[in-house]
Design a protein that fits this description.
- The structure is a single chain.
- The chain has 443 residues and is an alpha/beta fold.
- The chain contains 15 helices and 15 strands.
- The model has no long low-confidence stretch (mean pLDDT 92).
Length: 443
């Protein structure tokens, strides 16, 4: 049935993770049957309900499918989660406010930066065995981190924020460990954590960041890691304030073994100050991506942290991709060193659009939030109906289901392409869509 592969684990999360690892490595192939639940429970010495819970998790993630008496088998196209499929298809003639992209007009030109990088590579090609990170990139990154009061630590480069977060998580955690994440929060992160065999613990978030009481409850219950978005939180626009940072540090000081990860992807598109939590616990990491300020195709993020964490990330990276292309690194150095992005102007542009939309909605009796970044979050009683009505009115917005677990429903509107003339018609359409929604109660 499974050939030589033996499923392992004493809990549902561990059993599910064992199957997912085997699918990812190719040891379990599409179409292979899994053992009947009672048979596997007897083999592992666990309750059949534990195996049933593991199989249910695997079905929800799209890894296996069940066909009644014919049993459960690996799907022909296994996927870890279905969250990415919760999206709106945007027909011709409909404005796309659902994609989360930055304003193309605010992105700098890249031709000169890459020409400089290529010229340097032609003079001296990067060869195997050389340093993984450009020294000038480290210098520039470290200077900005120092200015933001981020504790001193080594610097590595990864292929974007999600790559960095994944590498940090796997260096410290094992399948079944719990990770506290913001709810609502970044959909890709909500996919990544269970895909690694880790358990997601939802933490409520308001305009000032994660709620300290929720963080305390999660850590009291044994949660091993906490992921915090410093600024431009997706989808709510939250940004950690000085007051909230003090409250969170006070909580974390009582749990020094917690793995703390801070995602500052809003760097260079937000002019709100950074209030880092880094250094409060033994193991921590802070990551800054260039995607929002310079373009999503620049797959590069700078990661700093405590020496053990950064060394583990660097060591594991060496055994995989080896390093992030020095052409990319040198291009980013050129962009940073030459001030290719006017940060105050970019931040002000996004702020004007968010504030205009939030103000127009408030005039129509619709509450919304968006303290920083590219998006506005609108709580609604029925997001499916509201999305459909807005689509019919010519506006495509992102359904909140992509970004939430236990949080109430909502809509995410990306403001990047909004013009002053869009604000009033869009606010009218949102108000109408929300007003038509039936009242629902969520607990």
């Amino acid at each position: 049935m499974l050939g030589e592969y033996r499923i392992e684990g004493s809990g549902a999360a561990e059993i599910a993770a064992s199957v997912e690892r085997a699918v990812g490595s190719g040891e379990l192939e599409p179409g292979q049957l899994l053992p009947p639940m009672r048979e596997l429970a007897a083999r592992l010495g666990v309750n059949p309900n534990t195996v049933a819970a593991a199989y249910r998790t695997l079905r929800e993630r799209g890894v296996i499918e069940t066909a009644g008496r014919r049993g459960s088998r690996i799907r022909s196209k296994p996927a870890t989660t279905g969250r990415d499929h919760i999206r709106v298809e945007v027909p011709d003639g409909v404005r796309n406010l659902a994609d989360g992209n930055p304003d193309r007009a605010l992105l700098p030109g890249l031709a000169e930066a890459f020409a400089v990088a290529v010229e340097g590579s032609d003079r001296k090609p990067v060869m195997y065995g050389e340093a993984a990170v450009e020294p000038e990139l480290v210098r520039l990154a470290r200077a900005e981190l120092d200015a933001d009061s981020v504790p001193d630590g080594p610097v590595v480069v990864t292929s974007g924020s999600l790559d960095a977060i994944e590498r940090v998580l796997v260096t410290h955690l094992k399948p079944g460990d719990a990770v506290a994440v913001e709810d609502p929060g970044w959909g890709s992160l909500l996919d990544l954590v269970p895909a690694l065999g880790l358990r997601v613990v939802a933490i409520r978030v308001d305009d000032e960041g994660p709620e300290p009481a929720d963080v305390r409850r999660a850590l009291d219950a044994g949660t091993r890691a906490l992921i915090v978005t410093s600024r431009a939180q997706n989808p709510t626009g939250a940004a950690v304030t000085a007051t909230r940072a003090r409250a969170l540090r006070s909580v974390l000081e009582k749990y020094p073994q917690t793995l703390l990860i801070e995602d500052d992807h809003g760097h260079r598109i937000v002019d709100l100050p950074l209030h880092p939590l880094a250094g409060t616990t033994h193991h921590w990491a802070l990551v800054r991506s260039v995607a929002k300020a310079y373009g999503p195709d620049l797959r590069l993020a700078v990661l700093t942290g405590d020496p053990v964490t950064v060394d583990r990330v660097h060591g594991r990276q060496r055994l995989g991709p080896g390093w992030v292309s020095h052409l990319l690194q040198r291009a980013v150095v050129h962009l940073w060193a030459n001030g290719a992005v006017d940060v105050p102007a970019v931040a002000a542009s996004y702020e004007r659009r968010r504030d205009a939309l939030i103000g127009a909605l408030e005039e129509r009796g619709v509450a919304a939030q968006g303290r920083s970044g590219l998006n506005v979050w609108i709580p609604v009683p029925d997001e499916t109906g509201a999305v459909a009505r807005l689509l019919h009115a010519g506006w495509a917005v992102a359904p909140g289901a992509r970004f939430r677990m236990s949080a109430p429903p909502g809509l995410r509107i990306t403001v990047s392409t909004l013009t002053p003339g869009d604000i009033e018609p869009l606010a009218d359409a949102v108000a109408s869509a929300v007003a038509q929604a039936p009242a629902r109660h969520y607990v």
